[in-house]
Amino acid sequence: MTLALFLTLAVISVITALLVVLSRNPIHSVLYLILTFFTIAGLYIMLNAQFLAVVHIIVYSGAIMVLFLFVMMLLNLNKDTEPQKSIYWKVGGGLAAGMLLVTLVGAMRGGIELQASATPDSNVGLVENLGKVLFTDFVVPFEIAGILFLAAMVGAVLVGKRDLKL
Amino acid sequence: MQSLLPLIPFLPLLGFLINGIFGRKYFSKTTVGLVGSAPLLVSFLLSLAAFNQVATSGPISFSLYQFLAVDSLQVPFGFLIDQLSVWMMLIVTGVGFLIHVYSIGYMHDDDGMWRFFAYLNLFIFSMLLLVMGDNFLMLFFGWEGVGLCSYLLIGFWYTNVEFGKAARKAFIMNRIGDLGLLLGIFLIYKTFGSIQYAQVFGQLGTLEIGAGVVTTICLLLFVGAIGKSAQIPLYTWLPDAMAGPTPVSALIHAATMVTAGIYLIARCNGLYSLSPDALHVVAIVGLATSLFAAFIGLRQNDIKKVLAYSTVSQLGLMFLALGMGAYSSAMFHVTTHAFFKALLFLGAGSVIHALGGEQDIRNMGGLRKALPITFWIFLIGTFAISGFPLLSGFFSKDEIFAHVYDHGGASWWALASFGGLLTAVYMCRLLYVTFFGDFRGTEDQKHHLHESPAVMTIPLIILAGLSVVGGLLNLPHFLHIEPASWMAHWFAGNGVTGASVIPMGKIGIDASTEWMLMGIATAVALAVIAVGYVLYSKPANLPVEDAELSGLSKLFANKFYVDEIYVALFVNPTARLSKMLHYYADVWGLDGVVNGVGKGVMELGGYFRRLQNGNIEYYLLGMVAGIMLLLLSVFV
Amino acid sequence: MLEAVPIEYFVYLCTLLFVIGVFGVLTRRNAIVVLMCIELMLNAVNLLLAAFSTYLSDAQGQILVFFIMVVAAAEAAVGLGILVMIYRNTKSTDISLLDQLRN
Predict the structure, then answer these.
(1) What is the residue extent of each domain of chain B?
(2) Which residues, 6 or more positions from B218, have their beta carbon under 8 angstroms from its beta carbon?
(3) Is B523 exposed, middle or buried (0-12, 13-18, 19+ CB in 10 A)?
(4) Which of B44, B134, B583, C39 sits at a 20 to 30 Å CA gap from B106?
């Protein structure tokens, strides 16, 4: 049952990812990406990474994708104004990506000894456990992440200004 | 006294430096002439003093400093003033001084006069080093120096390309001979372990007659002499060297430089006496050259070219004398030849000066009325070289012919005398065509005919006097007049090795034969002079235009086409080879490689430049490719 | 519960999603879509990290996912701001027009 669920979610995510890349209308791409994020969130829940799943949906689907949509609406992009690359590029890109896939898979199979423990602990993804690790071992990166957000905010505001009079 | 002797060569060197540095802007022309001639006079007086000392107390030898000290090769910058070298010094400085004085007048209108005197002084310095040196390296030093000065002076009027080519030709042909000389010196060092005269000639007793190495050395040295003294096959530069001013032709190409070859062989007479084969070669080359050049001289129409071929012919005669073992006779002829050939050249210069540059004898004629002094001295010179009785040339040539008869037999004597006959013929031709008959030049020239100034005529007169009395230096024995054979005795004095510098030669023929030979030669000479006078007074016999020549005359006038043969055999193939090498090695090879490297780098750079085209897509593709390579290299 | 799904499946899935993201980056010319494909790539990595964290009972993997999300969010914001600026200048979102740094 778990396997079937996993496979379903996996297939959906791959299909929607492909649609993101292949669809002509950029709005469609955004929507497909949101679907992909949802499936990935489902996979997170399967892994019992509860905190991550929720944060994933809130941050990615709820904020980032909405931001993308806003920008798309602002620029008024639709299928007609979408520039297309020549067929050579598409084939070449496909070839490059395919080779990368082969390389990665080859690297994984050949080089890495995957050891999975017999009983994976499902309690790792709980908020309580995650919070304990975050605020004891990783408190400094946590604070720095806050500063990073501050810098990003300032930067985004500055970059978006129409004229450069501060 | 000895401390003054180095001044002999170094005073002319000083003159060269002063005239060279200051002559152009700071000196007047007279000052240039004085600065150029005064060192010669002082050197001549010092040479007389040295002569005196050698006569009383034997050879002087001293060295200034150690020139070369390499392992076993010790070469000092040394001087050996013995009987032979002091005699050459006297000729060089004496005749040289007269020619310098003459040049003050001759070159007076030339802006490059300061250069002229500077080069002349440098030449005298080199020639003195050549004759005063006590080892073969000093000789070679002077040898090259005179070659250089010859080049500078032949091409003196350097704006004319043809003159420059003539100068180059002289220098290159000299260098061909110098190769032989150098090889000879190397072989001397290898055989004798030293290149100083004292040590080389002191060891001659240890060698046997006809030894192979001695013959080789002698032949190699002779090759050098061929180049410097214009014998077959390296003689063609001498007629072309007439492109230089006439005093140059007189000094360098008549009296001094071309006699360096004779001096060399006379100095090495000990070596040559050990090698009959080499002497034989020398004699053959000398005789052949003597006749060959005489034939060509018969049909030349440039006054200086006739004298040039005459010089080549007389040098051949001197080498013939050397080949017969008559070294002191050859030196005697060098002396008399210096007198009358310099006289003839300077006289020709006087004629050219009077006619404003005309050198073709077909445009001259009847000059004896307008240029009396020049005429008389030219007459004396012509008679001297033809062997008119009792003049200097008469005695020197007769002595040579006697030795030829003695060592070579009647056939050699006949050929040599035939050469003497031809000499008389072409010289008389020159005299009569130039000075007798009617004037054939332009009216303009006729108006400007004038005798040369005193500064030019006085040296001429002095040289004429020497040409007349020069024979007294070495009167033959059988005339029973004292002092007999003074010069031969002088050279037989003891040199630095204790042996004679030039041993006395013995003539094996008896007095009556000598009288007969002398009589035949005299009769021939007088006959030629008389017949020539009659012949050339008829206008029909005057030299004709070039287009009208035919047969033997054409062959002689065109110098047997030797120059053309040389150009076809040597010059053109070398030029072609040079062009080919230039194209393949230089342009294609070296330039190709160097430029190719540059071009290659630029191409490579251009190729890489196209990677930075600003296209984001390319960059992204590059990134993906890079990551792939990284993964491949790490995991696979 | 997760014994049925071998870890290799997660690896293959994430690799596939990553490669699809690469394909999108190389193929699309619209700058926004390129940024979205970058987000896709990041998500693939996140998923893999979370999977390993669960399978190896190590919380550090999920902490790292947390931080990656932080960075991704900041980057998306700034990136879109820049994109809007470019649009104002060139009136288009075509990345092939951004070749002023050539030569």
Answers:
(1) 2-557, 564-635
(2) B184, B268, B271, B272, B275, B278, B279
(3) exposed
(4) B44
Domain covering A1-80 in this structure, CATH number: 1.20.120.1200
What is the rounded distance in angstroms from the CA atom of residue B433 to the CA atom of residue B298?
12
Separation between Cα atoms, residue B152 and residue B123, nearest integer Å: 10
Q: What are phi and psi of C29, to 5 degrees?
A: -105, -15
The one-letter amino acid code at B571 reads: V
Q: What is the Cα–Cα distance from A151 to B1, expressed in whole angstroms? A: 104
Beta bridge pairs of residue B76: B66
3-state class of B451 per DSSP? coil
Kindly state whether B624 is in contact with chain C, defined as any CB-CB distance less than 8 angstroms.
Answer: yes
C3 — pLDDT class (breaks 50, 70, 90): low
DSSP, residue by residue, C48-103: HHHHHHHHTT-THHHHHHHHHHHHHHHHHHHHHHHHHHHHHHHSS-BGGG--TT--
Residues of B in contact with A89 (CB under 8 A): 617
**Which of A85, A89, A100 is opposite residue B624, by nearest beta carbon?**
A100
Nearest CA in chain B to C19: B624
Average pLDDT estimate for B253-270: 87
Greatest C-alpha distance within chain B: 118
Helices (H), B155-267: 161-192, 197-202, 212-228, 237-240, 246-250, 260-267
Q: What pLDDT, in 10s, does the model give residues A63-119?
A: 999 999 999 888 877 666 666 767 887 888 888 888 888 888 887 776 566 666 556
Task: Read off the pLDDT of residues B433-454 as tens digits, 9 standing for 90 and up.
Answer: 888 877 887 777 777 788 888 8
- Do the Cβ atoms of B635 and A111 come within 8 Å? yes
Say if the ipTM goes beyond 0.95.
Answer: no
Domain ranges (residues) in chain A: 1-80, 123-166
Distance of CA B69 to the CA centre of its chain: 31
Question: Could you give the domains of chain C?
Answer: 7-91 (1.10.287.3510)
**CA distances, A146 to each of B115, B537, C67 (Å):** 93, 130, 10
| Residue of A103, A104, A105, A108 to mutate, interface with B, max B Cβ within 10 Å | A103
Task: State the smallest CA–CA distance between residue C102 and chain B in angstroms.
Answer: 4
Residues 26-85 of C with CB under 8 A from A: 26-30, 32-33, 35-37, 39-40, 43, 46-47, 50-51, 53-60, 62-63, 65-67, 69-78, 80-85
Which stretches of B229-366 are DSSP H helices?
237-240, 246-250, 260-267, 269-273, 276-297, 303-323, 327-354
- Rounded to whole angstroms, the maximal C-alpha distance in chain C is 58
Q: Would an 8 Å CB–CB cutoff place C100 in contact with chain B?
A: yes
| Chain A neighbors of B634, CB-CB under 8 A | 107, 111
**Bridge partners (DSSP) listed for residue B34:** none
Question: Would the CB atoms of C81 and A108 count as touching at under 8 Å?
Answer: no
Strand ranges, E, within B15-135: 60-70, 73-81
Residue B423 · residue B314 · CB < 8 Å: yes
Q: Looking at beta carbons, which residues of chain C come within 8 Å of B614? A: 98-103
Measure the CA angle with vertex B232, ends B226 and B234; round to 5°.
60
